[in-house]
Amino acid sequence: MAVLTNIINYILSSSIEVLADMERHKTKSDRTGQLILKIVISQFLNTSIIYTILYLLKPLMPLETYGMVAKINSLIVVSGAINIIFQVVLPSYTISYFLNRRKYTE
Fold it and tell me: For residue 1, what pLDDT band results from cuts at 50, 70 and 90?
């Protein structure tokens, strides 16, 4: 479940970045501020909604072996591992840096 959540969060981040390019921000800092806000809100809602629905469908004691605490711990560990893999395998920061460099003048 943690892998699925991270995949959805990655898809949300990528699509929000594409949509942010279409918004015609005047400055790079405006674009970055709006981008961060939208990504944080969408990932928070995605993660909280998924785990809330799972808990409502099958309520367990939070500290059991497969309870909410274990699921959230696995989400944190898998999120860290997937973020490291994405940064190593998909150097999107470097690519987006060069693409944005042409769009904005400093």
Answer: low
Which amino acid would we find at residue 78? V
Tell me the pLDDT band of 51, cut-offs 50, 70 and 90: confident
59, amino acid identity: P
C-alpha–C-alpha distance, residues 11 and 82, integer Å: 13
Q: What is d(CA 87, CA 83) in angstroms, rounded to the nearest whole number?
A: 6
How many structural domains does the chain have? 1
- Range of the structural domain that residue 46 is part of: 2-103
The 3-state DSSP composition of the chain as helix, strand, coil percent (nearest 5) reads 80, 0, 20
Return the biggest CA–CA distance within the chain: 55
Predicted TM-score (pTM) of the model is 0.59
